[in-house]
Write a structure and sequence with these properties.
heterodimer, A: alpha/beta, FAD/NAD(P)-binding domain, 7-stranded mixed beta sheet, 35% helix, B: alpha/beta, globular
């Protein structure tokens, strides 16, 4: 009997909750491993943070959420499924960061020697210091942080022992203990360069003074100089993953909000959707939602072990979120040339940092944001359509955004207009005739981020705060950080599980591997080479 | 599993296996059995048909998102609006079951109520979703006794044969004009004659307006029927179009009189089509505008995509055929120069883009309208209501649009404003969680190319039109004061044209649906069977019969033609396919 409508009762091997990057990555691998997979998505469109939408209505598209892709060189599904080329192309601009700090202009590229050439204007020693810093951090990322993204985390004792095997490992341990500010302070850098690097390391939700978060600096600095955009919009990555799933017989159901994860005899065995539809999962349920939603909101309390429920209740959402102001413009913004600081003739950087005077200024700004105060308007700007012509459907017109860390608890209703006016004034100071070129403005504040993508509770773009208690083996708690939960058949696969958010794909990849291991199913791909090398170096006797 | 099956299938038929299975690569030189230019509903549906049939298919879409007019956008967080199509008219489509769209997640949601509210001040209205199964209902609506008897008998006979009537009208390829099949011999006319108790052959010449006048249909029902026809296809005053103009009104009540929408909006339907196509091995590429259909020796062999496209290969070859999900007016500019004769190009130039087009206003509101004269369902307003529905005013509006070629300025001429609130009964539309709703008000305006004051005239008048629409809503629902409107998103026909290259001229219907441009004449007699003068090049767009409304009809009908034209198609007919019982092949027709 042909199906005219999706059945109210259906059965599958695995249900994945949420069609964001991690849900899709997990589903893609599990379909490739031979499982029957159904992905359920609450929104009308898949992709979660991989969203490219016509919010500047009509005919201007914007990446409403993820626009900078830090890990495309490492993401295993891109190579495993040969995604690149099939309507998915990455574009890595040469100019990665142009920071106006006080009167200085710090221009960083994805080629070390080009960056050093520009920095030599601050003194030849500065170019050298920067070179040494990048070399050191690159080793840590290439040898350890990048491969460890695609493996389950280790208990601290095991990790310390493993990393002790090499000098880079020892260095990584040393870096990790410090705060971002301490780590950067250990380099004799000009203040404007330091301010730029500190912002790059902390902008997505790390307090500069928080000890134990130092590892974020190498990661976000080296990857922050390798940012890519996706040609045609970030949503293309979601579409490419969806194609893999569908081609292998998987299903994606959108407009389908999960209201319950069902259990039977302590085993997760399916989900119920808002309209009463039930999908039974023979093998398991993967949730890409945060632990509070997964364990407290969607599950019968009796089915959740006390320590897991308690940890979930104590889950801290991001300490700050983002304010993004999207613009449709009648022309491409042109940087006001300033001969004095040597910015003439440099190509538009992917990210332009505006509004800060010094390192102290960055620290006090972020401290203010953490307290819930916006002490000034400062942040980063990108003209997306300068790199991706498809975002503006009307020739000659452009799409751009300004983004800054922003608190969730804030009087957005009362203050937003004033702040947006300040944003436009700031941009007008730096770009020729900016204010006059604005055709349309759309604002996403932390509250509207939550409305659009409700799994980003309190506007948490990473599903949960980055602090030492919620990172590594502790993310989201020691019971669940391997993606496996104490509830049989239930796995976590979202940004709230190790290693975290920012479209790095680790949670989804690790969850798919975990399901295969638990069901004694052959995972259809080898580890990437860098992961193999990491395992051989640091876990020569094997890893648990 | 499907992917592996596809590799085997391809191997068995000797066709090139296009990358499927475990991470194959795009072949160095991209070629497919069929290349579909355009990823609107008709392009996606034909791709799904051909892929499920076993062919390798590629769809190339210019925009960042598939779906064409079957789209949803979320310009403000949590509220999905329909800038274009918004009701599901295709429940009679064989494609629903042939392509098993339900398997790919397709679900519908009831959109209860289809109310017609007379001019403001006049009490009462009519509920178009009533069952109309007793004489009292007709009398209550203002029919006289004879008309009521006739109406009831007609409704009863029609009800029994509605699916058959609609499939013969929409889901059957038009006959070739050269066969000389008399008008009354066309299957939909034959069925209509059998169900309409007072049939007279002169009705074939009538417009819907003339026919319902003759039947004694009173306002506001009469005006409602006319609005429906105008908004969805043939103008109610166009001669010889009474049956199609009536049929278009019946599409929505196909099953039980209850209009429906896809859960989540029309884009969900596009998703189901695309997922069916992809699951069966089709490739769909967005941001890939087709810049040329390549023709050599009168045979289409592929397309060229825009240099900016992310695809590595700029030439995509078609081993069997190229299918254009594009406006017929795009044919001459897209196809290799010299492929058409000057007289043929002239005929295409002459096709009229006149006719109404919709000014769509989506409002985010913080309260439901409380209509004084319209009943509520479960404490919420009905999904759909036509406001200011009165025949004299509607005729004035029609004259504004068609004869004076301008949009209305007099509030009295804002007739037949279509109020729609999907979120009233479908929770998937309102995710924002702060008590707001999305509602839509649609008004007919001239297609931009036809506007007396130039294509941007309506865009310039956006604010005034929106203000008048709000004021009019307030007359029926006095609670809708200015503070109830949170945000406004307007999609004018001109915006549609910019947003979507295949809405040439900004006409929602693609082109006029008059008798000379309908059925076996649509868009031109020589193009009616979806073929073009170029071998291997087919039309699959709403500018072919039976037009728009996301019916999945053009692709279903086109499959009949491909079945005739390609042995590769007819020899591999799958068991899930069934043709229209009224289909006549060229061989049969020529006899």
């Amino acid at each position: 009997m042909p199906q005219v409508e999706f059945p109210t009762q259906s059965e599958t091997d695995i249900v994945v909750i949420g069609a964001g990057p991690n849900g899709l990555i997990a589903a893609a691998y599990l379909t490739a491993a031979g499982f029957e997979v159904t992905v359920v998505e609450r929104r009308y469109e898949i992709g979660g943070g991989l969203a490219t939408e016509e919010i500047l209505f009509p005919h201007h598209y914007a990446n409403t959420h993820a626009s900078y892709h830090f890990m495309v060189d490492y993401l295993p599904p891109i190579s495993d499924f040969h995604l690149e080329g099939e309507g998915l192309r990455f574009h890595k601009p040469h100019g990665q960061m142009g920071a106006v700090v006080g009167d200085d202009y710090v221009y960083l590229t994805n080629k070390l020697e080009d960056s050093r050439d520009y920095l030599a204007r601050f003194g030849l020693d500065q170019a050298d210091v920067f070179g040494n810093l990048v070399q050191r951090f690159t080793k840590i990322v290439e040898d350890i942080l990048a491969p460890a993204t695609y493996l389950p985390p280790d208990p601290p004792v095991d990790l310390i022992e493993a990393l002790g095997r090499t000098q880079v490992g020892e260095d990584m341990l040393e870096v990790s203990e410090q705060s971002a500010l301490e780590l950067l302070d250990s380099y004799p850098l000009a203040d404007s360069i330091k301010a730029t690097l500190l912002y790059m390391a902390c902008q997505w939700g790390v307090m500069p003074t928080e000890s134990g978060m130092g590892f974020i600096v190498p990661l976000l600095l080296t990857r922050g100089m390798e940012k890519a955009c996706i040609y045609g919009g970030s949503h293309r990555l979601a579409s490419a993953l969806a194609r893999v799933i569908l081609q292998r017989g998987g299903l994606i159901i959108d407009n389908a909000e999960v209201t319950e994860i069902t259990t039977e005899d302590g085993r997760a065995n399916g989900v119920v959707l808002e309209d009463g539809q039930a999908i039974t999962a023979r093998v398991g349920v993967l949730s890409s939602l945060d632990p509070k939603t997964t364990f407290v909101k969607l599950m019968d309390p009796a089915a959740v072990p006390a320590e897991v429920a308690q940890a979930a209740e104590g889950w801290a959402f991001d300490k700050w979120s983002l304010l993004s102001v999207f613009f449709a413009l009648d022309r491409k913004p042109t940087f006001k040339a300033n001969d004095a600081n040597g910015m003439i003739g440099l190509p538009d950087p992917f990210m332009t940092l505006l509004g800060f005077d010094s390192t102290d200024d960055v620290v006090s700004f972020l401290t203010g944001i953490e307290r819930g105060e916006i002490t000034k308007v400062a942040g980063h700007f990108t003209c997306e359509s300068a790199f991706d012509p498809f975002l503006s459907q009307k020739q000659g017109e452009h799409v751009a955004f300004f983004q800054m860390p922003a608190p969730y608890d804030f009087d957005w209703e009362g203050e937003q207009d004033r702040i947006v006016a300040e944003v436009i004034a700031l941009l007008d100071t730096h770009f020729e005739g900016f204010a006059a070129s604005v055709l349309d403005t759309v604002v996403e504040n932390p509250k509207t981020i939550e409305q659009r993508l409700p799994n980003m509770v309190r506007g948490s773009i990473k599903h949960g705060d980055y602090n030492p208690l919620q990172m590594g083996y502790n993310r989201p708690n020691t019971e669940c950080s391997s993606t496996k939960t104490p509830i049989e058949g239930l796995y976590l696969c979202g940004a709230s599980v190790f290693p975290g958010g920012m479209v790095i794909g680790g949670p989804g990849y690790n969850a798919a591997r975990m399901v295969c291991a638990d069901t004694e199913t052959k995972f259809p791909f080898d580890y990437p080479l860098n992961v193999k090398r990491y395992l051989a170096t640091y876990f020569p006797e094997g890893k648990e | 599993m499907i992917a592996e099956q596809r590799i085997q299938d391809a191997a068995g038929t000797g066709r090139p296996a296009v990358e499927v299975g475990n991470g194959g690569r795009m072949p160095r030189r991209s070629s497919y059995d069929f290349v579909v230019a355009g990823g609107g509903p008709n392009g996606l549906t034909i791709a799904a048909y051909l892929a499920k049939w076993g062919f390798s298919v590629c769809v190339l879409e210019a925009r960042p998102e598939i779906g064409g007019g079957a789209e949803n956008v979320e310009p403000i967080p949590g509220y999905s609006v329909d800038p274009h199509a918004c009701f599901f008219y295709g429940r009679g489509a064989p494609g629903l079951e042939q392509l098993e769209l339900g398997k790919y997640g397709f679900r519908t949601s009831p959109a209860p109520g289809n109310f017609i509210a007379g001019p403001s001040g006049a009490a009462g209205g009519a509920d178009r979703s009533m069952k109309m199964d007793s004489i009292d209902q007709f009398l209550e609506m203002g029919f006289d006794v004879d008309s009521a008897k006739l109406g009831l008998e007609f409704q009863q006979k029609l009800k029994a044969r509605l699916p058959e009537f609609l499939r013969s009208l929409y889901w059957t390829p038009p006959y070739d004009h050269r066969w000389g099949v008399a008008r009354e011999e066309h299957p939909s006319v034959k069925i209509f004659k059998e169900v309409f108790p007072a049939w007279d052959d002169s009705m074939l010449d009538m417009s819907l307006y003339e026919w319902i006048e003759l039947m004694g249909v009173p306002d506001p029902q009469k005006c409602g029927m006319m609005i429906n026809a105008w908004g969805n296809g043939p103008h109610p005053c166009w001669k010889g179009m009474a049956i199609p103009a009536f049929g278009v009104g019946e599409l929505m009540s196909y099953v039980d009189g209850m209009p429906v929408t896809p859960v989540g909006g029309m884009h969900a339907l596009a998703h189901a089509m695309a997922r069916c196509a992809i699951a069966n091995g089709a490739k769909i590429f967005v941001n890939s505008p087709v810049s040329e259909v390549l023709v050599e020796d009168g045979q289409a062999y592929g397309v060229r995509v825009d240099d900016n496209s992310a695809l590595q290969e700029k030439t995509i070859r078609a081993n069997l055929g190229v299918i254009l999900n594009m406006h017929v007016k795009q044919l001459p500019e897209l196809v290799t120069r010299g492929s058409f004769t000057p007289d043929f190009i002239q005929k295409i130039d002459n096709l009229s883009l006149k006719g109404g087009s919709l000014f769509v206003t989506n409002f985010v509101v913080n309260e439901f309208p409380r209509f004084a004269a319209v009943p509520e369902i479960d404490g919420r307003p009905v999904t759909s209501t036509v406001l200011n529905a009165d025949t004299p005013r509607l005729l004035e509006l029609m004259r504004d649009v068609h004869s004076f070629r301008t949009h209305p300025t007099d509030p009295d001429h804002f007739a037949g404003v279509w109020y729609i609130c999907h979120g009233a009964h479908d929770r998937s539309r309102v995710r924002g969680g702060n008590g707001n709703y999305v509602l839509t008000l649609n008004l007919q305006v001239p297609a931009p190319e036809d506007h007396r004051d130039g294509p941007d005239a309506v865009n310039r008048a956006k604010d005034e039109i929106v203000a008048t629409l709000k004021a009019q809503l307030r007359e029926y629902a006095p609670n809708m004061t200015e503070d109830k409107f949170v945000a406004t998103f307007v999609n004018t026909p001109r915006d549609s044209e910019i947003r979507n290259m295949a809405f040439v001229g900004g006409n929602w219907m693609g082109m006029r649906e008059s008798e000379q441009e309908w059925g076996q004449n649509k868009p031109l007699p020589e193009l009616a069977r979806y073929r073009t003068p170029v071998d291997g090049l087919y039309l699959c767009h709403q500018t072919s019969h039976p037009g728009g409304l996301v019916l999945m009809a053009v692709p279903y009908n086109l499959m009949h033609i491909l079945h005739e034209d390609y042995e590769a198609v007819s020899k591999t007919t799958p068991d899930w396919w069934y043709p229209s019982p009224w289909h006549i092949t060229d061989k049969e027709g020529a006899r």
